[in-house]
Amino acid sequence: MVKAAVLGAAGGIGQPLSLLLKTCSLVHELALYDVVNTPGVAADLSHIATPAVTTGYLPADDGLQKALEGCDIVVIPAGLPRKPGMTRDELFNKNAGIVSALITGVAKWCPKAYVLIISNPVNSTVPIAAEVLKAHKVFDARKLFGVTSLDVVRASTFTAEIVGEKDPRKLTIPVVGGHSGDTIVPLLSQTTPPVSIPEDKVAGLVNRIQFGGDEVVKAKDGAGSATLSMAFAGYRFAEAVLKAHSGETGIVEPTFIYLPGVPGGAEVLKQVGGLEYFAVPVELGPGGAVKATNPLIAASEAEKKLLEVAIAGLKGNIAKGVEFVQASSAKL
Ligand SMILES: NC(=O)c1ccc[n+]([C@@H]2O[C@H](COP(=O)([O-])OP(=O)(O)OC[C@H]3O[C@@H](n4cnc5c(N)ncnc54)[C@H](O)[C@@H]3O)[C@@H](O)[C@H]2O)c1
Ligand SMILES: O=C(O)C[C@H](O)C(=O)O
């Protein structure tokens, strides 16, 4: 029996993501938590004829505790989205506190759950989550994931457009680094099956993958950022974790992880100047991350330059998250 919780379930991502989880045959109980509107969202979803029993919780009456108790997987899209002109880092001041409070709940009530962080800035909110779990002595790096799947989905979609592949799902592209602008590094040279991208199109394609989020923020014109494509991508990653949990083998998905705590992570860490967090394709198993793969060694010269820029950007983002928790850890 698998219990899943969505924290931030009434939001733009939370609602469609909860809908997809409600239709997932690997989920038996679905708990929706938000500071608003979850009773309505849960009532609505509960009429769908699938087995997952769906309940909604608000902060009152120990709602977070009730949502999290017994959870096997917690997906967190709670927090503010960007408006045009903002960077993801500008969300830090609001979202850092939201994520650390929710992870404190995870540490207390479901410390063994897989935790999938969607809330931005992912480059900092994942280190925040890790530090909170460490402070509570329940940190298992194999179960904490920064969800970078939207970058992977975009890489397939935009590359397919350029090479004339009608079904983007056929293209697998390792996207590594972090989740913001030039910390996102698509390793197009390692696309499988191999594709031939016209040389004059490569830089534009890389830029579109790195700044795809801005494209949506701009188009939504003040009404938020990617929600539907994110729900698709977040569900894809959650389903991968659940399939691996149920024993399916051979599942590999890129995700932003704490390298020192994942088998194979030390190899990647050496290659990224000692950064402790980095997204790489990760093999998943019943306990979460089984092995971090290292596609960086085979990066092309141009990709190595992109990696240098990503590493420099990530350093500050990661330190900011770690320092936020260390400065406030007395309050946890
Ligand atoms: N990782 C990614 O690739 C990715 C992609 C898209 C968006 N995001 C991020 O996901 C987050 C959510 O985006 P959205 O478009 O769904 O925003 P939204 O504003 O539509 O929804 C956020 C929800 O979080 C809830 N919330 C706020 N504080 C909370 C708390 N303390 N506890 C529980 N719930 C709380 C809000 O009530 C709201 O329902 C943003 O930070 C956004 O930047 C990440
Ligand atoms: O761009 C954003 O702020 C949301 C998200 O991180 C995205 O990549 O779409």
From TrEMBL:
Its EC number is 1.1.1.37. GO terms for cellular component: cytosol. It holds the Pfam family Ldh_1_C. GO terms for biological process: carboxylic acid metabolic process; tricarboxylic acid cycle. Substrate binds at R82, R88, N120, R154. This is malate dehydrogenase. It catalyses: (S)-malate + NAD(+) = oxaloacetate + NADH + H(+).
